[in-house]
Amino acid sequence: MSPLTLLSQRIRPPLNASRFIALGVLWLAAGVGVGAVAWAYRDIIALLLNWTPALARGFALNILMGVVAMLAATVFGTLLGCLQVSLHRGLRQMAVLLTQLLRNAPWLVVVFLVMNLLPFEFQALDRWWQIPDWLKAALGLGLAGSGYVSEIVRGGIRSIPVAQWEAAASLALPRRKSLRLVILPQALRSMVPPWMSLYCAVTMATSLANLMGVEELMTSLQLHLTGQTRPDLLLPAYLYVFVAFFIYIYPISRYSRYLERKWSLYS
């Protein structure tokens, strides 16, 4: 077994019989507690399960908005990040200014500006095309997240040794081609984990679209709650939304941390 493998493993004490029994009792007690709570709130749980198909459609829109927002943020942020390491002073300063402006702007304000600046519809190919509100909100989140992607790309490029640039220059490669073929492929390893963490943050921020009238998960939940006159339903309903986001976000977050530890170990 290699030393790197030994370093990556944690030394854990063996489980004896008493610890195994205590763990089993703990899980049994937790199961009994969950069962008791479920029985006490069985009518609320049944109501939430009845709402689940409609809430799932709203949550699917949250996921779609997160994917579209990260695509937009990746495209624009990668361009800004590459310009931050440009040899042209004017382009470099402009990219740094835009990056800092987008990073320090409130996401809700950016989403509000984009949704109000983009037209309701536009004309192309001899017809009118409507821009849905969810797409406007996703583009606003993508614009807000592009500043963070820019810093991720800039940091990834700066992490590559200068010798790689010199080796590419010795092969008579132009700077753009060196960046695209030599530097960026090596920098991907350090850029993917923070990019995944940013995707988690952007996906959670899609709930801001609720304030703009987009029919995502929070909007769907509030529409269902307006037909109820039960104050005791508010906490379980919002806890249900929390669990939905947690189940989707937590595995991605854990996997990004795993990749970060793995690749930093072998770097």
TrEMBL record:
Domain ABC transmembrane type-1: 59-251
GO cellular component, one term: ATP-binding cassette (ABC) transporter complex
Localization in the cell: Cell inner membrane; Cell membrane
Single GO MF descriptor: transmembrane transporter activity
Biological process (GO), any one: amino acid transport
CDD domains: TM_PBP2
Organism domain of life: Bacteria
Main localization (coarse): membrane
Topology relative to the membrane: Multi-pass membrane protein
Pfam families: BPD_transp_1
PROSITE patterns to which the protein is assigned, alphabetical: ABC_TM1
Keywords per UniProt: Amino-acid transport, Cell membrane, Membrane, Transmembrane, Transmembrane helix, Transport
Spans through the membrane: 20-41, 61-83, 104-122, 195-213, 233-252
Family: Belongs to the binding-protein-dependent transport system permease family. HisMQ subfamily.
Official protein name in the record: ABC transporter permease subunit
